[in-house]
Queue: 3 jobs
Job 1
Amino acid sequence: MLIPEKGRPKEEIFAELERLKARDLDWKAGRVWAYVYNPGDETREVVSQAYTMFLVENALDPTVFPSLLRLEVEVVRMLADLLRGDENVVGNVTSGGTESILLAVKTARDWARAERPEVKAPEMVLPMTAHAAFHKAARYFGVRPVVVPFHPETYRADVDAMRKAITENTILLVASAPCYSQGVVDPIPEIGALALEHGLLFHVDACVGGIHLSFLRKMGYPVPDFDFSVPGVTSISVDMHKYGYAAKGCSTILYRDKRLRRYQIFACSGTTGYALINPIVLSTRSGAPIAGAWAILNYLGEEGYCRIVRAVQEATRRLIEGINAIEGLRVLGQPDMCMFSFTSDTVNVFQLADEMRRRGWYLQPQFSTPLSPRNLHVSVNYGTVPAVDALLADLREAVEVVRRMPPPDPGLVQAVVAALVENPSPETIARVLSLAGIRTTELPEEMALINEVLDALPDELVDQLLIHYFNDLYA
Ligand SMILES: Cc1ncc(COP(=O)(O)O)c(C=O)c1O
């Protein structure tokens, strides 16, 4: 593919974009139960208009675009208040949950360098349910992740294990509100007390839960404490582009006070160029996500969010009851909000995901761990509320279809796993992929066999395999 010598008519361009889009799953019909957070057409239009208004403005320099400074500060203030922080809470808008988490870890590392210089090999303690972004941050910033188990019944972090994992090198504790995989909130007050006892920083990842849980609490639902009202919590990440229903590219990182946030900011004036000052990872950044977030907070207001949150929570309740009522399926743990996962001892859930996909639904496969079975993840959002009954009806049928299917050939799975474990070279990976009928430059339609193999392999090998596959896919 080359840049066309002459520009193409815009009608042709949009027609082609539409054609490409037609291959995606239909999120507008509420069929995608992950990745997408749809507040409805009217609200989405407001976000879209605000987004477009600030598409070109650059938040890199608040002296040139003071509007963006104002909008960012107001977004942060609104969320700080929602999360029961006082006027000392500060923060920034970032490009997503991952960036917020990267910054929380980098800030902790730099805080420790300044305030605990005796720590030469910093560590953070996190439950296995914490998001992979913390492992990415650990890799990027040279902080060792010390992973502790969760309770296999409740999926909540094992606080005793966290306590035992603390060493003289520990700088940061991490917990989720809730974790993505099973939607349960960790025991934040107990972990906060642990952080205070040991003089550690404590980051609460409320990327998915910050907004939804806070409005649930305001409406009187039972919600475990997870925000700045909990002593010991020093920073919180909250995504606007998830259950804030803003456009993608928008999260926030909040700190209990400015003394800590100082370690987040980077400045460099020693080049021939302009003096660079970046409060976050990105330097040039569009004003669009900030304006979109500001617009939706103001457009929906507390009333609008409560309306959405109530509808989503009610749909989640019906869905969980409906899934638990299907013979052979069961929801894991006791989810605290509108995301959860379910498993089965009698039906292959990877095949079930494929069967649902054939019917136009996306349910997200998650692998087993030593403490949890393989399962399918479901994130309910406002756009999926009308599709609950249709999803349950198809799920009931799909379970019966899968029951009658032969499972992925165990002999083939075993042979592939053995070959990869013995020699995980790029050549073996390529051979295995072609054996499984997978062309590396195309996306596979059926994932059950691949998931079966991946689930049986050690994590490090899965990571290698996926890196190899993606390295070829984006070609
Ligand atoms: C709990 C949690 N934290 C962090 C992230 C990372 O957010 P993002 O995908 O916006 O980078 C996610 C994403 O799903 C999440 O669920």
Note: The mean pLDDT is 96.
Job 2
Amino acid sequence: MEAPGPAGGPDRRRRSPWVREEALVLAQDQGGPDWFRLLLRAPRIAPLAWPGQFLQVAVRPVATGLPGPAGAPDLAGSDPLLPRPLSICTLDPEGGSLSVVYRVAGRGTALLASARPGERLALLGPLGLSFPDPGGAASRPLHLVGGGLGIPPLACAAAWARAGGRRPQALLGARGAAGLAGAAEVAACGAPVQAVTEDGSAGVRGLVTDVLRERLAPGDEVWSCGPPAMLAAVQRLCAAQGAEAWLCVERAMACGFGVCLGCAVARSDGGGFLRACVDGPVFRAGDVDVAEPRR
Ligand SMILES: Cc1cc2nc3c(=O)[nH]c(=O)nc-3n(C[C@H](O)[C@H](O)[C@H](O)COP(=O)(O)OP(=O)(O)OC[C@H]3O[C@@H](n4cnc5c(N)ncnc54)[C@H](O)[C@@H]3O)c2cc1C
């Protein structure tokens, strides 16, 4: 389903109907000191999903129905109450599976890291708007620019772009080599990867935006996901070069479907706010002010 176009031109992002599904954990492995890959069988959600969309993941396996300690009802499955939003990293619609790559940031993701194959996790998704449909000008350069935990959604984005006839190039940055979570997936999905690390432990030393500045030409297209400062730099570079940019803004959120208003992103025209969960997380760069809101 095509999303309605925002002011300022045609919109190629997609929205899906979302469903609840108890997904089967197929595999989980630790990819780095603080991050994991989780492969899930989700035959209802996977065929509906588009790259850039995300899932709300209940971090504890679905309750077994067995009584808890001292015969009390097992309420563990509802603590923590809120699911955690995670971007889809790889996607196999025909096979009915998908993966997420996540960093252990706090209690929820620490619990998720203990999920084992054979257990089931409750998912809601696919949520939000995708990256834009990549079809069209095959020769138009497409740069995938990811930073830290913004890298994972660029894997299925690369595969989608390739399927649409594009030849995406990925610039993936982190403080050091261990932080390049999802970079192997991006490469496996068909985008040549240039790693850029602040400490020089992998690829080129520096910031992804240093390398993007050298590569970017007027009329190019950029899909980017990462921390707010990086997105703001990508936004500025693309505006200066006359390149089209789409930014995936992973603002902290509670509900994921437009009700709680926790993920407000300021509109660049000063006309109020958009919600990262339903008006994004992928936005046209010119439509939003990606700086974190003051708390
Ligand atoms: C649409 C979307 C997609 C996301 N995709 C991924 C992904 O693919 N991989 C991944 O590792 N993470 C992703 N995140 C971030 C992830 O949801 C949080 O790291 C997670 O919810 C933290 O939960 P927790 O209980 O472990 O930590 P908490 O105890 O809830 O928080 C730990 C710390 O992380 C901070 N935090 C929580 N959410 C965010 C956020 N969105 N951005 C920056 N800081 C945050 C908190 O303020 C706190 O300081 C995504 C977020 C959104 C909104």
Note: The mean pLDDT is 91.
Job 3
Amino acid sequence: MRIAITGSAGQLGQALQKVLSGEELLLIDLPDYDITNYAQLQRAIVDFQPQVVIHTAAFTDVDGCELKPETAYRVNALGTQNVALACQNCDAAMVYISTDYVFDGTKGEPYWEWDRPNPQSAYARSKLAGEYYTQTLLRKFYIVRTAWLYSRTGMNFVKKVLQLADQHDQLYFVTDEVGSPTYAPDLADALRKLIAHPLYGIYHLTNTGVCSRYEWAKAILELAGRPDYPLFPTQGYARPAKVPAHCELRNFCAATQLGITLRPWREALVDYFHG
Ligand SMILES: NC(=O)c1ccc[n+]([C@@H]2O[C@H](COP(=O)([O-])OP(=O)(O)OC[C@H]3O[C@@H](n4cnc5c(N)ncnc54)[C@H](OP(=O)(O)O)[C@@H]3O)[C@@H](O)[C@H]2O)c1
């Protein structure tokens, strides 16, 4: 299969390159390709004539988006419009990677794929705008919402916790932010399975189960061989962007239609450290 991957140098992009190494790939990332450059992107994608474009490129710094909303909308909304138009031009299917942050986190139970989004930050609003472009411009699309991505490549919460633990005598992490840590290689493998079927629509794909930032940090330090590190729970971390307090994405569609599920988040984290 001919597959283009945007954001190919990112956490998910690199994991996708691994699981799709047997396919013909076009890798799209800065500095060679900029998804906000309409003409350049159309040329690159239409010349390649992919069957599928997996669009992971985004301005992913959630607080950065709050401080620079124009950049957030330019990359996450208009960049996605450009990718969708390129797919339209060569009749490719598009996979748009979206986020649990499109929800406000107040539901009190897991979010279904059909629940109404209510984004609370510039990042989340710009990603939801990307969902709208994908849905309105294309017939062949998969919108895949995921959460709390980490991998061995790139900067993420796991690495940040270990870095901070080296720099400080004790650490505090919040219990009032709950989500699903998701190992990028697991998501990449699920995406590989998903694009084998023309079952277009909206999907929720995360590792199974939820934890708070505090519980996640505790598991990270334990698995890194530092179970006695002084780690304390706290609440109400002040930051520029408002993020959902409790967001669990229920994987109903991929599990029911295709039997695609991801393993529990703790098992994936063990793999990250010892796999
Ligand atoms: N990370 C999470 O916790 C999380 C959670 C839910 C959903 N998601 C979504 O999942 C997707 C993948 O996330 P990730 O963690 O793999 O992201 P990532 O590691 O930040 O990778 C994103 C990649 O996109 C590139 N990029 C940014 N702007 C671009 C542009 N204008 N043109 C071309 N490439 C550009 C980045 O390059 P530079 O590094 O040079 O900017 C980077 O290589 C994103 O769409 C994100 O919104 C992420």
Note: Residues 7, 9-13, 29-30, 33-36, 56-60, 75, 79, 97, 99, 127, 146-149, 154 surround NAP (CB under 6 Å).
